[in-house]
Amino acid sequence: MQATTVSCPALCAETDARVDDLTLVEAPRHGDVTGFDELVRRYDRKLLRIAQTVTHNTEDAEEAVQEAFLKAYQKLNQFQGNAKFSTWLVRITLNESFMKLRKQHGIPKQSIDSDAHADSGKLPLDVADWAPSPEALYGASELRKILIHCLQRLTPTLKIVFVLRDIEEHSISKTSEILNLTETAVKTRLFRARLRLREELSTYFRKSD
């Protein structure tokens, strides 16, 4: 974000000590944008990873993140601190990413709250112990492209739960907070995402034999 920076020696000096997000959020409210500049630096890469996971397009992901930061800056007065600033910021980024995805493919309106009707019912058994695990595949450079290809075949609502929980390593509680879902809904979507990824990966490895 391009902005005229107001000097703030005290805040800048504290940045190296990892000033908490709420302190940085308060700075622009008092006319000093250096705090928000630090928030951009702090979360830019993380948000870009998440946006790319949704859009599968670098340009769209970059635009989604830029627009998310702009909206967050414009709506700072609406941030009440009831949730972590990072949670609020990720949620804005996800919605901006879904907007890009709709424009990209001309698909019906979809948001991170979509597909809620499929989350009801009995909570399924965990499927975290199947091999090869998607987390392990994602960490292996030679297999990274395989997982990315398989992730593209998931619906956005399943994909983003998997990314937040198994790749970004947020807890179930934090993931449910970001997505504004119950923990049961998150666990259900995660189960479905892992199951479909297992099916996709199994198909891939059978073809590769």
Summarize the structure in words.
- The chain has 209 residues and is mainly α.
- The chain has helices at 9-15, 21-29, 34-55, 58-74, 85-105, 134-139, 141-151, 156-167, 172-179, 183-208.
- Helix 3 runs antiparallel to helix 4 (58-74), helix 4 (58-74) crosses helix 5 (85-105) and helix 9 crosses helix 10 (183-208).
- The longest helix has 26 residues, at 183-208.
- The chain is globular, with a radius of gyration of 19 Å.
Based on the model shown, name its key terms.
67% helix, Rna Polymerase Sigma Factor, Chain: A, Arc Repressor Mutant, subunit A, disordered N terminus, 10 helices, mainly alpha
Number of domains: 2
CATH architecture assignment name of the largest domain:
Orthogonal Bundle
Structural class category: mainly alpha
Beta-strand percent range: under 5%
Average the pLDDT over all residues and give the rounded result.
77
Low-confidence stretches: 2-17, 120-131
User: What is the top-level CATH class of the largest domain?
Assistant: Mainly Alpha
CATH topology of the largest domain: Rna Polymerase Sigma Factor, Chain: A
CATH superfamily name of the largest domain? RNA polymerase sigma factor, region 2, helix turn helix motif
Principal-axes geometry comes out as globular
Sheet with the most strands?
Answer: none
Q: What is the helix/strand order?
A: HHHHHHHHHH
Count of discrete alpha- or pi-helical segments spanning 4 or more residues: 10
Question: How many beta-strand runs?
Answer: 0
In angstroms, what separates the terminal alpha carbons? 49 Å
Overall helicity = 55-70%
Rounded radius of gyration (Å): 19 Å
